[in-house]
Design a protein that fits this description.
Layout: H1 2-10, H2 16-33, H3 44-51, H4 56-59, H5 63-79, H6 95-101, H7 107-122, H8 132-144, H9 151-168
Length: 197
């Protein structure tokens, strides 16, 4: 992560203010993890585990500042290609995705599939191209190239929401996706499941 920080400092393609914010956020992230940047591998699964249950109060900053720290640290990692799925995707989904999303009923499916649609749009994947092969790559990216909390839960919820839409939403692509075996992912008793942002 020290190399990530140095590369951001040296990247003149980024505005100076953004570079400073990214570097500051990386330092704060390291502080939250109780480590030096030099001691943190630029590995999304490692970083995710280090900050998974941290809050702003635990780091001595406000909740809003902690949110900004995570956002700007994620932007730095996204800019350098360490991750390829940001926690937050502001760009709207494609026209084909929007045409389907407006037919969804309920906030839950709309939230899950809305985020998935924006993610697919970033990759130029239209609804008709979603299948098990693509989902296998998507699951791998969630686990190894994102900071999204509980990637396995996120993936399973997406697959279930998709399959439900196949059977309940007129015009939704007919491809049923393979639901991952939930027994493979052990959750300790009493542990909270955190949804991805």
């Amino acid at each position: 992560m020290a190399e990530v920080s140095q590369r951001i400092r040296d990247d003149l393609s980024l505005p100076l203010a953004l570079r400073r914010e990214m570097v500051s956020s990386l330092n704060t992230l390291a502080k939250a993890a109780g480590k030096m940047l030099e001691g943190i591998p630029a590995s999304p699964p490692v970083i995710r585990d280090l900050i998974r249950h941290k809050t702003g109060a635990m780091v001595g900053i406000s909740r809003g500042r902690w949110s900004n720290v995570r956002s700007h640290a994620g932007l730095a990692l996204l800019h350098l290609g360490v991750i390829n799925i940001p926690n937050r995707i502001d760009a709207p989904p494609s026209e084909a995705w929007r045409a389907l999303l407006v037919r969804l009923v309920g906030k839950g499916p709309a939230a899950v599939l809305g985020r998935f649609a924006r993610c697919c749009t970033r990759l130029d994947i239209e609804p008709c191209q979603v299948n098990d092969e693509f989902m296998a790559r998507h699951r791998d990216d969630l686990i190894h190239r994102s900071l999204i909390a509980d990637p396995e839960t996120n993936f399973r919820e997406t697959v279930l929401a998709w399959n439900n839409a196949v059977s309940s939403v007129p015009g939704w692509p007919a491809t049923q996706l393979t639901v991952p075996d939930n027994s493979l992912y052990y959750t300790p008793p009493g542990a909270r499941i955190r949804r991805a942002c």
